[in-house]
Amino acid sequence: MGEKKDSTYCGCLYYSASALARVMTRMADESFAPTGLSSSLALLLMTVHKRPGIQPCGISEQMQLSPSTITRLVEKLEHKGLIERQSEGRTTRVYPTSVGSGLSASIEEAWKKLYAKYSGLLGEEKSRELTAAIYEASRRLEG
Amino acid sequence: MGEKKDSTYCGCLYYSASALARVMTRMADESFAPTGLSSSLALLLMTVHKRPGIQPCGISEQMQLSPSTITRLVEKLEHKGLIERQSEGRTTRVYPTSVGSGLSASIEEAWKKLYAKYSGLLGEEKSRELTAAIYEASRRLEG
DNA sequence: CGCGTATATTTGCATGTACAAACATACTTC
DNA sequence: GAAGTATGTTTGTACATGCAAATATACGCG
Lengths: 143, 143
What we know:
- 2 copies of one chain form a homodimer.
- The first copy, chain A, is mostly helical.
- Chain A is 68% helix and 8% strand.
- Chain A contains 6 helices and 2 strands.
- Chains A and B meet through helix 1, helix 2, helix 5 and helix 6 of A and helix 1, helix 2, helix 5 and helix 6 of B.
- The first copy, chain A, binds a DNA duplex through residues 22, 25-26, 38, 40, 55-57, 65-73, 75-76, 87, 89-92.
């Protein structure tokens, strides 16, 4: 009875949020592809580039990803020679290598292209509102 | 210079959408835990329960997940004895087993509890609006 | 000082997800 | 009815992610 394009789930925030995240991740990976990095790795590299010496727990907080995820992503970037870790005591500090820093411009550019792409599809005003609303909601939900 | 709780990324839809999806997935998994299923499996089982004989490609469309993902999830539910596949020709049809159907009530209940939880935190009106806006955006972004 | 607790990081394991390719079947057109 | 194309499904492989436990270090208090 009338279930053409609206699924049973479209009223569920879990469902729609997951769907949007998948679409956005695909779009982001496309945008970042010229840098040779996935979207997650690109964002992490930018984070380190903006705050050299940041600790994994700081990255975790900033990116809202679990510490273990950060460990894994950092390993990959280190393996690619884009960042390096310096451990001292219980803390670890992460720095970009010169190669890694050299990528920052193209990452920034890809990022802007990504913004342009989705705001072109959604409208600039709308997409800013949506982003803010989503950000606010995620903060409130995990408080 | 003033970067307390707002990250560099909070203006990026990719970032905020991913963050919200992670939070919501965690919440959903908690809600569905009493059923013994992860949120994805629970939703898939409901989908099959509501349309017995649905094909993987139909599930894929409805859940907005890739066909290969559906294959993997269906395998798991089949292995748990909650659904079964009947292949004929190139098509496959998926049916709930009686055990699987027996779970549908508690899944439905968990789903309502999930709704109650996040709408309690965000406000019912707000969360409905947000869900609709997100759903609309994801549709528009992937055409 | 030394013991208990708190914090930072990593590891083992499991999950969900997708892309590309392989495969299997159906359709179409000549 | 055979060849080429379209559709449905599965497989191989890779990635991102998290939880719980292990590890390592720091801190605080008696």
